[in-house]
């Protein structure tokens, strides 16, 4: 770990898992309403649909003065229109209740049920949040002035009378502990309050002992998890970036229109109340396709979106920057041969009502309102960081860290001056400690170095792997520690993790994994990673050399398939590990 001083060494906490909100609505079994007449209504507020939009003042008509009548009116709206899911109706003494699960993950306002033309009796209805809606966010626990980690192994005594008088031991139970001292801003959403809540609840937390994470963009690619293409725009992937990797993308408009963009979305928790600096690398596609516009937008839960005023400058490379407006920034005259690094900084802190996330948008072309299929631009290596000065690019997949689950076992607080206090916290590990957030190796043979056998028609096997050809025109096989993809015509060929005659299932659908592989020879063609989401399987980089990609699994086993009518690609090494993020 490249630690220079204590300010570079932070303990990060995952503030919450990604969860929808679950709300229990309890209603008195009999006559919960005063002077009831059939057809009267109640009012429901803070309904959040699965797009995050909020509705207030919604009425529900009541047909019977019972818990069943009230819950039916509520369920009809929440489930029938707003895509909530509902549990069965449960009897709890003098009450009945239903648990309603919101369709949108993340923090949402609490449902509210009020009297309308029908008036509730005192205490006849209760609203209980049994699970708060939560976002998946890592943040530093306050502002550390020091942080430490210790890893321990208990020794088991195996001394016998044959040990010649020497004590003999073997490794036993392993554990780890972390601690931090910090200067805490009492207005900060994360820190002492969070640690105290974790201590009281007794729940384990995910913590990360890490170099300072400057880049809030979670991927090194400009596509995939967290990225969205809006409108008629597409990406040509796996182009070479400024750091000689293959993470850049060509963003191109596919139909004439407006507001065609590629954008990255950040949860509001990591930037709210702070100024933000966004840097990215740009290159022209051609002498006439050498421009783009950039824009930052706040996205609110209920009231839509709002632009953020910003300023722009070039850090390195050629080109011209200007302002189309206080919030839209333009870059023109980009080079086709060299990269330009551009910085966009917000003029004020990120703030607003009901903020849900912030989007960073790139529009190919010089005018986002009048885009054509001639509008293209190449981009790579995005970085979003808090503050007003850009730092060197930090690859988010290469931040040194130790990561694991732990209990908070102590928190101490000392009063400070102004709005600051100091605190100390310590954590005791409850699980294995993972280096750089990566789990164990999940494939049994990284180098395909077992003895090849045939397993039936056009199936070639080595321990833990199967390479399949659909017919004799595809001649893929294992040879000399290399998986050789060779196919022609419509022949299909694919590589899957395999053990004996059944699939090896090292992955869990929906979890994130890191795949590292080495291309020892490239002739032609494409390979796609069938294991990855979305349903349209992504192509993978095939330039000779070693590549690392991260993906969300759509299968329980690794599956790489040929793409196109012909090709030849040799793979000499594969590693697969879970990413604990």
In short:
The chain is mainly beta. A hairpin with a 4-residue loop joins strand 31 (401-415) and strand 32.
Question: Can you walk me through this structure?
Answer:
The protein is mostly beta strands and 581 residues long. The chain has 4 domains: 1-18 and 135-213 and 399-436, Irregular (Factor Xa Inhibitor), CATH 4.10.410; 20-131; 227-391, Sandwich (Jelly Rolls); 453-579, Jelly Rolls, CATH 2.60.120. Strands 34, 35, 36, 37, 38, 39, 40, 41, 42, 43 and 44 form an 11-stranded antiparallel sheet that branches. Strands 1, 14, 15, 16, 17, 31, 32 and 33 form an 8-stranded antiparallel sheet that branches. Strands 18, 21, 23, 24, 26, 27 and 29 form a 7-stranded antiparallel sheet that branches. A hairpin with a 2-residue loop joins strand 9 and strand 10 (95-105).
CATH architecture of the largest domain: Sandwich
Give the number of domains.
Answer: 4
Helical amount among residues, as a percent range? under 10%
CATH topology of the largest domain: Jelly Rolls
CATH superfamily caption of the largest domain: Galactose-binding domain-like
Estimated share of beta-strand residues: over 45%
Low-confidence stretches: none
Structural class: mainly beta
Q: Which CATH top level class of the largest domain fits?
A: Mainly Beta
Question: How far apart are the termini?
Answer: 18 Å
Number of strands: 44
Helix segment tally = 2
Index terms:
Factor Xa Inhibitor; mainly beta; 8-stranded antiparallel beta sheet; 11-stranded antiparallel beta sheet; Jelly Rolls; 51% strand
How is this fold's topology laid out?
Blueprint: E1 9-14, E2 20-28, E3 33-34, E4 41-45, E5 47-48, E6 54-55, E7 58-61, H1 67-80, E8 85-86, E9 90-92, E10 95-105, E11 112-115, E12 119-120, E13 125-131, E14 138-140, E15 143-157, E16 169-185, H2 192-201, E17 205-211, E18 227-230, E19 233-239, E20 248-253, E21 261-267, E22 276-283, E23 292-300, E24 304-307, E25 310-316, E26 320-323, E27 329-332, E28 340-346, E29 355-364, E30 376-386, E31 401-415, E32 420-429, E33 434-435, E34 438-441, E35 453-454, E36 459-462, E37 465-469, E38 477-479, E39 482-487, E40 493-499, E41 502-503, E42 512-529, E43 545-552, E44 559-579
